[in-house]
Structures are given as structure tokens and as C-alpha cells.
């Protein structure tokens, strides 16, 4: 299962690699990291092999430039079967409603409870 993590904070990569180290060692998942929604969209649109093997996108809402909700909307318009989980530090009802309207498969608030996230990933 290939998962793309989209977050402008560079330390997120280290955190996810630590929290998923067992799954990574067992080759249950592979992680691809991008630091912006624009970079994620460019990768998805330009690498046809990536979209064929990509199972899930985990996207932060608050990023400079294009935010996670805008990315969600574009992805769901172009790749409706691709699962997208939105992650946010703010439990904001408006963002939740927009995320659901745009087709988010999950809405997760920080701090991330990785046990619950793993359950959602592997049951999706």
C-alpha cells in the first residue's frame, strides 16, 4: 500500500517513519512525502505509475499556497476513487463540513493518534 503524506512541516516525515516503522519493515506500506499540495498534485499528474499504485493521501489542511482542502477537491474531481484523509491541528466545524463536501474519506485532528490512524488505513 503506497501512502502519500502532504505536509509543509519537514519533521512530519521523521514522525511518520518512526510511527510506521514496523509496517515499513514488513513492506505493508510505503510512504511518499511532499512538502506542498502543489508538489503532490504535480507528482500525481505527471507520474502515471504513481497514481496506479497510490492507495491513500494524507493531507494537512494548513499549508502555504494551495491548502489541503483545495488539493482534496482537485483530487476527488480527477481521481474519485483515490482515498484522501484530511489532517488538521484545528478542530474547525467549517473545515470539517468543507472536507466532507469535497469527499474526504476521513477527517483527523492533531495530535494524531497513530493507533487509530493505522486502524483506519488498514480497514479502508
Task: Write up what this structure looks like.
By secondary structure, the chain is α/β, with parallel strands linked by helices. It has a single domain (2-92), classed as Response regulator (Rossmann fold, 3-Layer(aba) Sandwich), CATH 3.40.50.2300. Helix content is 49%, strand content 22%. The protein has seven helices and five strands, in the order βααβααβαβαβα. It has helices at 11-19, 21-25, 37-46, 48-53, 68-78, 93-102, 114-123; strands at 2-6, 30-34, 54-60, 83-88, 106-109. Strands 2-1-3-4-5 form a five-stranded parallel β-sheet, sandwiched between helices. Strand 4 (83-88), helix 6 (93-102) and strand 5 (106-109) form a beta-alpha-beta unit. The longest helix is centred in the middle third of the chain and has 11 residues, at 68-78. The model has no long low-confidence stretch (mean pLDDT 94). Keywords: Phosphoprotein.
Summarize the structure.
With 124 residues, the protein is of the alpha/beta class. It has helices spanning 11-19, 21-25, 37-46, 48-53, 68-78, 93-102, 114-123, and strands at residues 2-6, 30-34, 54-60, 83-88, 106-109.
Keyword list:
single chain, 124 residues, alpha/beta, Rossmann fold, 5-stranded parallel β-sheet, 5 strands, 22% strand, globular, Response regulator
Give the arrangement of secondary structure elements.
Elements: E1 2-6, H1 11-19, H2 21-25, E2 30-34, H3 37-46, H4 48-53, E3 54-60, H5 68-78, E4 83-88, H6 93-102, E5 106-109, H7 114-123
Parallel strand pairs: 1-2, 1-3, 3-4, 4-5
Helix pairs in contact: 3-5, 5-6
Protein name: Response regulator
Pfam families: Response_reg
InterPro entries: Bact_response_regulator (IPR050595), CheY-like_superfamily (IPR011006), Sig_transdc_resp-reg_receiver (IPR001789)
